[in-house]
Specification:
two-stranded antiparallel ribbon, mainly alpha, 327 residues
Amino acid sequence: MSTSISKLSDLLSEKIRNTNQVIEENLISKETAIIGDIASHLINSGGKRVRPLLTLTVSELFDYQGDKDTVLAAAIEYIHSATLLHDDVIDRSQKRRGLKTANIIWTNKYSVLVGDFLFSRAFQLMVRTGSLRIMRTLSDASAIISQGEILQVGIEKRLDASKEDYLKVIKGKTSALFSAACQAGAEITKASDSQIEALRKYGECIGTSFQLIDDRLDYLGNEKQMGKNKGNDFFEKKITLPIIHAYEKSSKAEKKVIREIFQKPNSNHDDLNIFLEIMEKKKSLLFTKNQATIWTERSINALKILENSKIKALLIELAEEILDRAS
């Protein structure tokens, strides 16, 4: 996945430096130094920062000349980081990007509160853009993200959840911020409403594809590359599309085996291997990849109304690389 990201990073190097400066400056809290410690632990732990990069890329696509895009990109990264801190508490995660999670090092209370702080900082940065339209876009996205998290809790351990149920979860949990990152990046420029809508749709579709590939890699991925343990979703009893598909396609006997595994308070690697065999038989990981392919194609189609350019070509390349990524 690094090719298009490295090309965009080279092209936007100055903007990225300025964005990183805004991110660092606004992590500092004189009264509560622990905020900077926890936030920096996550924000500087080697994430690809795809979402803020999308904001900068889209503003560059329309030849934006000011500095609001860097402020906006920092706000996007704060919202993303806040959701990760909260996610790790909800999921009782122990590792992220190969490091111990903040909730393990500093406790759940601190993780939740620092997540709240980052949300607040994000809104302070939004105000600096002076745009009510952008504030609406990002505040709407924040509300949708929260709804997605609540929907995910609602389908926890529900093996009979449908594909449609899960798409609603990821459209909130993941797609909303990809979509808002692209939309807001266009809204600070002279882009037309139809161009803004095209970028919003592009972001929504690559966000959906991104999460579906994430779900697939949880069962396939290389632990060193992924920075988390293989089968994390399985051990956390997190209902994702590969699980939904495998259960739906299973015989009565197989469904009984899956239910027994999921009812255990603590599943082990033998349970995971049994489940992987069922998934392999039902081609659930292939089904998930095929679903991601559909969303990738939709993302590329959304860009058809835009004039051909170097940036547009890189956005298409990024969509294709999200589909083929290994981490």
